[in-house]
Amino acid sequence: MNTKAHWDNAWTDADPKNKSWYQDLPVHSLELIGACAIAHSEAIIDVGGGASTLVDALLTQGFNNTSVLDVSHAALQNAKDRLGARANHVKWLCEDATNWTPAHPFRLWHDRAVFHFLTAKEDRQRYRAIAEAAIVPGGYLVMATFTLDGPEKCSGLPVIRYSAQTLTATFGDRFRLVGETTEQHTTPGGTVQKFQYCRFLRV
Ligand SMILES: C[S@@+](CC[C@H](N)C(=O)[O-])C[C@H]1O[C@@H](n2cnc3c(N)ncnc32)[C@H](O)[C@@H]1O
């Protein structure tokens, strides 16, 4: 099954609150985004945002130039349905993060639990090249992956696990690590999963 088919299947008729990665409030993402101190009018993108409630929190904080990208139409529809009329204030992009052309630059790029699915080197290289070109110098990349001792799979797919050091090495010298934290995420089923969050300045 290809990436899009896998994720559309995972999201169709699914209650997002039952997904292992579900968070009522993405506290760590919001903390690292807050540390970037960007203006509410700046362009933000949540890559592989799925049905995450991050976009709800960003709208509530007053961010008014936010995009959510996901390979799954079903995931985006889920988030739109939840937001109702507020969804009209968001740009929804049904794209593969390893193969798309951003229409404009971003000041902040967020990814929680998406990059770690890229187990093929060419996919990681394409993702990184798109991020490097799309994030303005002085902008930020906020990324969360499973830690080195985190789960080996998610949604039935293998992942690559990272530390702050290995993620920094993966993104190369255009991204300077300026903050990091870890999360002990409790899934709806009660399992604890460890996430590594990194905040990079695009230099
Ligand atoms: C584990 S979920 C995380 C969702 C969200 N970021 C969160 O933290 O709640 C992974 C998401 O990435 C999306 N995804 C997986 N591979 C992708 C790709 N190559 N391009 C864009 N989205 C992708 C999936 O559809 C899914 O919504």
Structure description:
With 203 residues, the chain is of the alpha/beta class. The protein has a domain at 1-9 and 42-174: Rossmann fold (3-Layer(aba) Sandwich). It has six helices and nine strands, in the order ααβαβαββαβββαββ. It has helices at residues 3-11, 27-35, 54-61, 73-83, 121-134, 164-171; strands spanning 44-47, 66-70, 90-94, 106-112, 135-146, 153-154, 157-158, 175-186, 192-202. The chain has a seven-stranded mixed beta sheet with strand order 3-2-1-4-5-9-8. Helix 1 (3-11) runs parallel beside helix 4. The protein is globular, with a radius of gyration of 16 Å. The termini are far apart. 35% of the residues are buried. It binds S-adenosylmethionine. The site of S-adenosylmethionine has 19 residues, from helix 1.
